[in-house]
Amino acid sequence: MTIYSQASWTDEGDDRYEPLLSEKANERVDIEDSPLPDELTRDSLELPAPAEPELARHYTRLSQMNYGVESGPFPLGSCTMKYNPSFTEDIAALPAAAVHPDRPDRTVQGTLGLCHRLQDYLGRIGGMDAVTLQPPAGAAGEFTGIQIAKAYHQHNDDDRSEVVIPDSAHGTNFATAAMAGYSVVELPSGDDGRVDIDALEAAVSEETAALMLTNPNTLGLFERDIERVADIVHEAGGLLYYDGANLNALLGRARPGDMGFDVMHYNVHKTFATPHGGGGPGAGPVGVTEELAPFLPDPHVRQSNGGYEYYRPDHSIGKVHGYYGNWPVLVKAFAYITRLGDGGLADASAKAVLNANYLAERIPYEVPFGPFHHEFVASAGEQDAADVAKGMLDHGVHPPTTKWPETVDEALMTEPTEGESRRSLDQLAAAFEAVHGADDGTLSAAPKRTAAGRIDQVRAARTPRLAWQALDSEQ
Amino acid sequence: MTSPYAPHTDAETEAMLDAVGVDEIDALFDVPDSVAFDGEFGIPAHGERETRREAAKLLGRNDDLTEFLGRGHYTHYVPSVVDDLASRSEFLTSYTQYQPEVAQGFLQALFEYQSMLVELTGLDVANCSMYDEATALGEAATLSQRVRAVSGETILVPDQLREGKRAVLESYAEGPGLPVESYPMADGQADVAALAETIDDDVALVYAETPTVRGVIEERLTDIGELADDHDALFCLGSDPIALALLERPADVGADVVVGDAASLGTGTAYGFGLGMFVTREDYLRQVPGRLVGASEDSDGRRAYTLTLQTREQHIRKERATSNICTNQAWVALRAAMHAAWLGPDGLVDLAEDCVTRARDLASRLNEVIGVQAPVHEGHHFREFVAHTDQPARAVVEDLAAEGYAVHAIDEHLIQVSATEVTAEAEDGLVGAIAEVAK
């Protein structure tokens, strides 16, 4: 059993942990003798002014109060928290990569060349004919894909009003459809956790613009009837959208393009190992079939006269990012794919699936649906999944995603990724085991060994204090 | 080849397969043959050194130009300590703070970032980030439709606006069907009289910028805010955190939402990689898109931080969420906060003042050059300015590239030049090169 204790600093009797920068070193300066007339300037500015040694210690302490992939196992389901190879950072930091986005094409042939190569690689991996790198995150990729579907239908004078989404899908799918102006038709899952073909047939109609599907789905299950699903959607005139969140299950084994998907997004911060950065930046390239390529965002890179150039696709949806997306993230993804190649990518998925199956075998919680691939959703049963998660924190592991999808009671959505060794999977299993045997009182009091104890969510939402200016003066 | 980032030895793989009860990993895949992929991607594997070499070779085809470029993407000197601290793996390899008890560090850093934007704008609520300024503006447009006091639908923007920004706004406005229309600019600033003619009660949001896309500091923000107010429209101001250290506080000119790109702090030139600021009034708190960090208490009664008001968000509210955004630019925000703290208020104000004087001084030097008139616009400038060239601007830009410099061509005889401390030592060379090519 792992004995774990996260770093934490507090003074005895104090009502806080590490003080805020503003509490350490705030300074107020008056704006005087500026080169602008007074009526165009503010009066003063009050912000922290720590000396560099204090700044370094502040953020080093904060980092030690934070848990990342390099801290320990991080099986956060649907997030693919795999190891982020260090060398990709060095490549993204190459001085030649740091160019301004408004440079003429012919002066940035290296950047365009790398983009073109990455577009090509992603197309091969997903079985797609054309790929845009512009969307800056998975949700932005979804928005791009659905806007493409919309533009395609409009181009064919075929106004459609609905997007069909399974009840087990990521919340972003629903929100994306709404952002694009569609109403959502929620598709109830079948008893086996997969798409219910009868329900799908009932749900699609001439109003169906697209079906958004994750495959394997959020339960880790491959939609075995995917070809039938594709036929049903296509016969109704709709398009099939692939949410790439779970692509790490399938590298080299199956491709969305071969399954009948028309448009997909890739989550490079999941599948292609770019760091999650505490909540971004990610990148969400979108792949499409040849038929949809004219609708891709503006601009798109293509080859020309032995070099590369940007062009506006004929029926482009326009733009989804002010420039070209999250460039440094794309460079890291390029580096990862180039490093691994065919064999490494396929092995990553193989080991990810092996790890999930091995871990599921070792834990005391029931996994109601299978066979699963790179992730599984266990049920905490009589226990509260949120408490289970808090309990696991005390054992030096990050817990699974909890209470979602709702198709499993008290869900523990677990995705260990290929980066975990057998030893760390055993450590994870021991954490599950310990929490499974713990009584409710212990769990509801957990965690005890983290930088802070259990945090009051209700209080945070009831009395929002979202900046240091809003804190009580005595604090 | 196997993945170098999967730790399994062959013996471990065997033992794990045994534990699972299958003979080979293939048996774990439930993929029908009809859709199984048995081809090759044709992507060769490389060693780490070879991968670095390959990437360096590819990127080495970029011309080495000294960039005097801006128009929304700016470079300032980023101190080494920012790279060093932000690269700590506990920050870099963590994710959204779903378990706040093990993520206090990042949450506190984001809380501090939000607080800095609150101070810079004078408004109450800053979110953890949007992707970039353009998407933040798109989100502001859709926010206007969730504010009860707003009855109109039209989004009104300056007719001089970076094209990419307007295009993104139009993408966001397309779903809810909001018309995007423009009002005239005059001499690099909003033409307030013309705006007054243009605006009506159908307008939901008026967008203005300071500095404007032409680098001019907008002088009539209060008038713009009042016009928006008179028509029950939101006033959305686009700016950047360095300019806000010096310029009028957005709250004092009646701004309801402030958007902008904050990556000029902490990141610098990265091909348009951004950090969308989104700051608004407390009145619209429940309508804000994106993540918010709030202070609460832990079980020991100490102050602790957590993501809050998540019922606005897609993972709870699904199609009724305020936005579909989840992964944002948190790590870029961390870097911006670190850089701001390193500068301190004195350093930030100094930097902002340098942006004013450097643009002014470089413009007046270029005005001495035969064939160039600079600045074209009367007002005060920030970082950048527009110059008129007697020669066609495209030719000037081409010829300058041959001399190793990059500036913008924005019209037939207009170039735009952006200057920060990063290119200080190259200014003499630029002036000399322009003197050569602009004759």
Structure characterization notes:
The complex is a heterodimer of chains A (475) and B (439). With 475 residues, chain A is of the alpha/beta class. Chain A is 35% helix and 13% strand. In chain A, the strands form four sheets. A seven-stranded mixed sheet of chain A has the order 3-9-8-7-6-4-5, with helices on both faces. A three-stranded antiparallel sheet of chain A has the order 12-14-13. In chain A, helix 8 (226-235) links the parallel strand 6 and strand 7 (239-244). In chain A, helix 5 (138-155) packs across helix 6 (171-179). The longest helix of chain A has 36 residues, at 327-362. Chain A is globular, with a radius of gyration of 25 Å. Chain A starts with 20 loop residues before the first helix and ends in a 13-residue tail after the last helix. Chain B has 439 residues and is of the alpha/beta class. In chain B, the strands form five sheets. Chain B has a seven-stranded mixed sheet with strand order 2-10-9-8-7-3-4, with helices on both faces. In chain B, helix 6 runs parallel beside helix 7 (163-174) and helix 13 crosses helix 14. Chains A and B meet through helix 1, strand 1, strand 2, helix 2 and helix 3 of A and helix 1, helix 2, helix 3, helix 4 and helix 5 of B.
